[in-house]
Amino acid sequence: MPDTNKIDPAAETGHEPRAAEKILNVARDLFYRQGIRAIGVDEIVRTAGVTKPSLYRSFPSKDELAASYLRYYDREFWARFDEAVAAHPGDPRAQILAFLTRVGKRTQKPGYRGCGMTNAVVEYPEHDHPARLVSEENKRELRRRLRAMAKAMGASEPDTLGDGLLLLIEGAYISGQLFGAGGPARTVARNAELLIDASLAKPGRA
Amino acid sequence: MPDTNKIDPAAETGHEPRAAEKILNVARDLFYRQGIRAIGVDEIVRTAGVTKPSLYRSFPSKDELAASYLRYYDREFWARFDEAVAAHPGDPRAQILAFLTRVGKRTQKPGYRGCGMTNAVVEYPEHDHPARLVSEENKRELRRRLRAMAKAMGASEPDTLGDGLLLLIEGAYISGQLFGAGGPARTVARNAELLIDASLAKPGRA
DNA sequence: TGACAATGTTACCGATCGGTACGTATACGG
DNA sequence: CCGTATACGTACCGATCGGTAACATTGTCA
After folding, report:
1. Residue A6 CB closer than 7 angstroms to strand D?
2. How far apart are CA A177 and CA A112, in angstroms?
3. Could you tell me the end-to-end alpha-carbon distance of chain A, in angstroms, rounded to an integer?
4. Torsion, Cα of B48, A132, A167, B167 (10° steps)
5. Residue A29's pLDDT is what?
6. Residue A165 burial (CB < 10 Å; 0-12/13-18/19+)?
7. DSSP category for residue B117
8. Does the distance separating the beta carbons of B190 and A160 come in below 8 Å?
């Protein structure tokens, strides 16, 4: 299924960047670092060195530009996720821990701003906003995969464990940008490890 | 230490609400439900049935009004937290679980919008923003208390457990507004229970 | 009743918001 | 050399942003 925006600026490389590509690259950077609502289209086109009509020729609206930014972010996210999965074939526990170890490290880097999609959900509570739709789809799929991995691990309550891992992940995204280096997000992999092992033990209490 | 805003509209009741009080009440509702950046001062004063100079005589700026909203939110938060603590004297495990059980329930209610302070951090990445300062102070104190409670429980890695609980809490705030009813936030207390019990067992692995 | 302080109101400010009508430059095929 | 299509820029739109100057109203206490 094709993108909503008319052009895919990251299609092939080798050419000098077209206006649409420069715009999306700048928008990705500014939207992520400052927030979508905080950045105006004027600032985007000024930074990209283009003009406003160029933006609106490639993207129907600012909201759709934001959605394109998040679709890009979504692809990057799954690339990172699948990389961790591919590093430990057939071992979902190691897959999750590898992913969370890298998340934990990223959260400690200066200027970390959390998950672009999570942030977009906070910025846009309206359920039909283009940016939110992309984010919600990503999170639903993440939840589905985490639950499946928890089941594959043999957890006694796979849905609980999958959801618990998602809570830890989202908590790491937020805590990372809230506390910076040395914050709670540093422990996300270790806490996931504890939670997983506790869930693999027999039924637990009543 | 007194508030930054000139007036405390929730000081005593029994009088017909002054403009400042009406403004703050409306701002609390709109800022929480829609987000701070999404709401303009015109909409606030219009909804409150007052005019703009009334706002700016009681609050130095919109940013400071947002900070006042968050200070109010901070007080409500600690009231809820201390209520759970007081319900289980000397039993930090039960205190945490009581608090998280209520958090989990709140996240399932329609229109749930997460934690106002967490949302403000996402909306304002600048570290010197008045709204962010209030939120960061709240979160630092929460982290401190969670770690202290983890230590009081006798956790083998108290800082790890305290931080893990904070990750679960922040994850519940986000997931609650992201997934709505039936989302992962429902399991926050159960996952905290698993994590706590795993952390109370002996050292774990290397 | 008169003076003062607190509060509310009308009307306005420059800046920025997202978005667009319309003209211009460049590349390419005939 | 011309016609056409594609890509980009100039100049502008009404609406809304956060914030304010100047004036009117009210309550209180002497």
Report:
1. no
2. 6
3. 46
4. -60
5. 97
6. buried
7. H
8. yes
What structural domains and CATH numbers belong to chain A?
A: 19-200 (1.10.357.10)
The band of B18, judged by pLDDT with boundaries at 50, 70 and 90, is: confident
Per-window interface: B 137-166 vs A, CB < 8 A: 139-140, 143, 157, 159-164, 166
| Chain B residue numbers touching A142 (CB-CB < 8 A) | none
User: How far does the CA of B52 sit from the C1' of D22, in Å?
Assistant: 14
Other C-beta atoms lying within 10 Å of the C-beta of residue A2: 6
Name the nucleotide with the smallest C1'–CA separation from B6: C6
Residues in chain A: 206
**Where on the phi/psi map is residue B90: left (φ > 0), alpha (ψ -120 to 50), or beta?**
left
Helices (H), A35-91: 41-48, 52-58, 62-87
Contacts of B38 in chain A (CB under 8 A): 37, 123, 125
What one-character-per-residue DSSP string does A107-176 give? HTSTT----HHHHHHHH---TT-HHHHHHHHHHHHHHHHHHHHHHHHT-SSHHHHHHHHHHHHHHHHHHH
Confirm or reject contact between A82 and chain B (CB < 8 A): no
The pLDDT tens digits for A157-184 are 999 999 999 999 999 999 999 999 999 9
Measure Cα distances from A156 to B71, B96, B152 in Å.
42, 23, 29
